[in-house]
User: What shape does this take?
Amino acid sequence: MKWFVYNALFCVAYLAMMPAFLLRMKRRGGYRARMGDRFARYPALAFPDGAIWIHAVSVGEVQVAGQLMRAMRATDPSLRFVFSTTSSTGWRTAEREVAGDDILIYNPLDFPSLVRRAFDQIRPRAIILTETEIWPNFIREARRRGVPLFLANARISDRSAPRYRRLRWFFGEVFRCFTKIYAQSDLDAERLASAGADRGKIEVTGSFKFDVARRRPDKEAELRAWIGEGPVLLGGSTWPGEDEVLLRLYGDLPPEVKLVIAPRHFEKADAVEANIVKAGFACVRRSRGDAGASAADSPRTVYLADTTGELMGLFGLAAAAFVGKSLCAHGSQNMIEPCLCGVPTVVGPFTENFRPVMSDLLAAEAIVQVRDEAELRSTILSFFSGRGSAFAAALGARARAAVERRKGATARCANDILSYLG
Assistant: This one.
C-alpha cells in the first residue's frame, strides 16, 4: 500500500512540476537531445558488462563522484562506470569527470517500469549514490536484484531530517536496502539511523569534498591575463541579492582592488550585469570575451565571470572571497575551494548544506561567518586595510592547513567499496 501511495504522489508531483521543468530545460538547453534517457530509452549505447553505476546531480556531487571514480580506478584500472545525472549543469560537469570508456546518461525517472527498463539494459555490478540522492523505486529495484548499493558522502540536511524521521515507516525500508552508507558526520549518521537506516551499516568518514578541491594553475594564469594585476575580491557562486551587497561595498575598497562576481546560475548573468551598471560600474563579461582594457576609462570595473569550469581558477587568484547562497539564500555553496587556496573566506549565516565542513573550519578558526550585510561589509573592508591584512593572511593560512588535514575520506571509501566487490 505504501508503495502505491508513493508512486501516486510522485506522479502527481512530477506533473505539477512539468511546466517549470520545461521552462528550465528551454533556458539551459542541452537537455532536450537526451530526453529519452529519462524514460530509459538510450540512443544505441553499448553498456559494458560489470560496470559500476554511479549517480550524482549537483556540480559538487558530480565532482565528489568523479573523485571517487578516480580513487577506485587507482586500485583497479579495469573498472568502467555508467555515470548518471539529472540536470544539464550536472551533465556538463560530468563530461569532465568521466573517462573515455565510461558512459554518461540521464537517470531514469523514479517510476517502477522505467527503473526496471534501465536496470535491464545497464546490468550494473554495483551502484553508488551520492549525498542525498534517495530515489525509492530505484533503490528498491537494486535490492530486489541483489545489486550492492552504496551511499557516499551521505548527509541529511536540517530541513530534511524531521521529514525523514516522521516518514520512517516508509524511508526505513528504503535506507535498509543499502549495503553501506558513508556519512559525512556523527550528526548525519544519527539522522540516518533515526530515519530507519541500519546503524551497523553506517560509517562516519568525514566530507569527501575536502578531497575534491584542486588548484588550477593553468586556469589561474588565463584568468589573471583577463583580470589584470591587482588584488581581487571574489563573490563566488552568488545568488540574487548577494551581488548587490558586494557592489554596495565595492566603492569603499581601495582603488587597486578588483571585484569579480561569479553567479551560481549563469542564466542570471544579464540581471547581475544590470545591477553592475545600475551601481555605476563598468562591466567586463567573460562570456562575451570582454577584455579588461575595454573599460580602462571607467573609474571602477566589475568582472562578471559567467562561464563554466573556471571558479576554482578564480579562487586561486583571490585576495579575499565571499561564498554565495549563504547571505540572501539558504544552503551555501562550497567554501572548501577558497580555503584550499589559502584565501581569507567569508560566508553568511545560512550554511546548512555544508554543516560538517563548517563545523571543522570554524573549530580551526579558518573561516569567518557573518550574520548580515553590515558584518560582511566590515569584515571585507578590514581584510584590505592595513590593520586587518595580517589577520587575513593568518586566516588564509589556517584555512589551507585545515583542508589539507582533512583529506583522505575518498580513498578510504573507495577501498572499502572495492573490498565488498571482491
Summary: The CA atoms of residues 114 and 159 lie 29 Å apart. The first strand starts at residue 52 and ends at 55. The chain has 18 helices and 14 strands. The mean pLDDT is 91.
